[in-house]
Design a protein that fits this description.
327 residues; seven-stranded parallel sheet; 17% strand; three-stranded mixed sheet; alpha/beta
Length: 327
């Protein structure tokens, strides 16, 4: 298929592009490089531009005869969204609607949407199923949910079909070690731990030790970025084969506390990682663990990296070989 990938120079987008190209899809990447890296995109695929530019979107859809869109472009930091909700509503919702409008105008029928487990807010049951109530605890989750809701209405009115993938915590790097996670600022736990161990980042701070969990720190479900990439391809191909619009959770179904991750990372790097302790961050639920049976049953998706240590080892390979990231 001929595909437009927005935000494809970012962490998850770049890994997904690699999987799409392997499977023979033709890809055009649109990224403004505010968070992504040109070096993460195969040569010749990148168009530098913004999803807020509807004329550019329509031009790309028409010129390249786009059949489907994979939409990764978005602000994605929970704490930042609490401090700057206006920016998140503009970037994630307003620009997202411009993309949908350009798709409708250009006759593009299929969308795979990069959503988040943050739409659920504080979970009422764990693991969290797709039909769990959606009550976001921060603007990031609220903006992703807003676009999910728009997709439902666009589908009813214009025939747009979509799959919304609600990620839990993306982690790891391609085992080849040549692409991986490189954010500025970095907020994800595993790269923060590994950079602290390498001495290329600040000392690690654990935010909150008074959560209602066994060791008092947050529990999260970590899913390898390559497993996320494969899920995107399966979702895309299901839509093209006639599958209806739907929502899937993506996670391993196992939760690890912050301190468990720190200990596992220390085992991988061969030395304990020093930890400082701070107050809770606004908008952080205590426990987020995926119920991902639906995508396993319908698309036969199975995570290949199911253990925390295996995920951390791929991330360590990337950070150790590229201590300055894509620079």
């Amino acid at each position: 298929m001929k595909l437009l990938v927005t935000g494809g120079a970012g962490y998850i987008g770049s890994h997904t592009i690699r999987e799409l190209v392997k499977r023979g899809h033709r890809v055009v990447v649109l990224d403004n490089l505010s968070q992504g890296h040109a070096a993460a995109v195969p040569e010749g695929l990148l168009v530098r531009g913004d999803t807020g530019d509807r004329a550019l979107l329509e031009h790309l859809c028409t010129e390249f005869e786009i059949e489907a869109v994979l939409h990764f472009a978005a602000g994605s930091l929970v704490g930042d969204s609490v401090r700057r909700p206006a920016a998140y509503y503009h970037n994630n919702v307003v620009k997202g609607l411009r993309l949908l409008d350009a798709m409708v105008e250009s006759g593009v029928q299929y969308l795979v949407f990069s959503s988040t487990a943050a739409v659920y807010g504080e979970p009422r049951q764990v693991p969290i199923p797709e039909d769990h109530p959606v009550v976001p605890a921060n603007p990031y989750g609220a903006t992703k949910l807003a676009l999910e809701e728009a997709l439902q209405w666009y589908g009813a009115a214009y025939g747009l079909r979509f799959v919304s993938l609600r990620y839990f915590n993306a982690a790891g790097a391609d085992p080849a070690g040549d692409i991986g996670e490189d954010h500025d600022p970095e907020t994800h736990l595993i790269p923060l731990v590994l950079k602290a161990a390498l001495g290329t980042g600040p000392e690690l701070t654990v935010f909150g030790t008074d959560y209602p969990t066994p060791d008092g720190t947050c529990i999260r479900d970590y899913i390898h970025v390559n497993d996320l990439a494969e899920a995107h391809v399966l979702a895309l191909e299901a839509l093209a084969a006639g599958a209806p619009s739907t929502v899937y959770n993506l996670g391993n179904g196992s939760g690890y506390s912050v301190l468990e991750v720190v200990r596992a990372a220390g085992e991988v790097v061969g030395k304990p990682v020093k930890v400082n302790y701070g107050a809770r961050r606004p908008g952080d639920p205590a426990v987020l663990v995926a119920g991902a049976e639906k995508i396993k049953e319908r698309l036969n998706w199975r995570p290949r990296f199911s253990g925390l240590r295996a995920i951390i080892e791929t991330a360590w390979r990337w950070h150790r070989s590229r201590p300055r990231g894509f620079e």
